[in-house]
């Protein structure tokens, strides 16, 4: 591996880490490390200090460079870029105070509702062309699955739901949800 290639990959990693800091509003205070090991504590790749992977993550690319040192491979994985390392670096910058574990939809309607919604998508293979169409379709399918009008909940979260979707769901009952999120601003959760 030549020094120019090493410079390119280090510059790429610097950009990724600095982008994480830019997003979070933090300053770099420690180095990020990446270690491959024969037996890691969890999964295939995980965040932490250091970020860990199994040994095979360090395979050689077609340019005979270790994958984690190949800026071109990381930037162009499947033509879209490799999300794995930036994803784990993002977790290293994630803060507990803005990461909540209490998912309202899963708690209120169970994980089976998600399974049914995902299967509906798989069966229909819908064509959606904009984020608004995606939001409307998600709200419509999830609402129909649980037989409740979830428009007020999604609007509570700050999503814009079209009037057309609201009209499609107007005959469904609006669920009574009271939890620590709704309690913060109960006036925002209205029909």
Description of the molecule:
- By secondary structure, the protein is mainly alpha-helical.
- The chain folds into two domains: 3-98, no CATH class; 104-188, no CATH class.
- Helices cover 48% and strands 5% of the residues.
- It contains nine helices and three strands; from the N terminus they run αβββαααααααα.
- The chain has helices at residues 3-24, 71-75, 84-93, 104-109, 111-124, 131-146, 151-156, 163-169, 180-184, and strands spanning 34-37, 45-46, 51-54.
- A three-stranded mixed sheet has the order 1-3-2, with helices on one face.
- Strand 2 (45-46) and strand 3 form a beta hairpin.
- The longest helix has 22 residues, at 3-24.
- The relative contact order is 0.09.
- The mean pLDDT is 85.
Features:
5% strand; 3 strands; three-stranded mixed beta sheet; single chain; 48% helix; elongated; 191 residues; mainly alpha
**Strand arrangement, major sheet:** 1-3-2
The computed structural class is mainly alpha
Largest sheet: 3 strands, mixed
Number of domains: 2
Proportion of strand residues: 5-15%
Oligomer: single chain
Unreliable sequence segments: none
Q: Helix share of residues?
A: 40-55%
Helices, by number, come to 9
What string, H for helix and E for strand, traces the elements in order?
HEEEHHHHHHHH
Could you tell me the mean pLDDT? 85
Present the secondary structure layout.
Layout: H1 3-24, E1 34-37, E2 45-46, E3 51-54, H2 71-75, H3 84-93, H4 104-109, H5 111-124, H6 131-146, H7 151-156, H8 163-169, H9 180-184
Parallel strand pairs: 1-3
Antiparallel strand pairs: 2-3
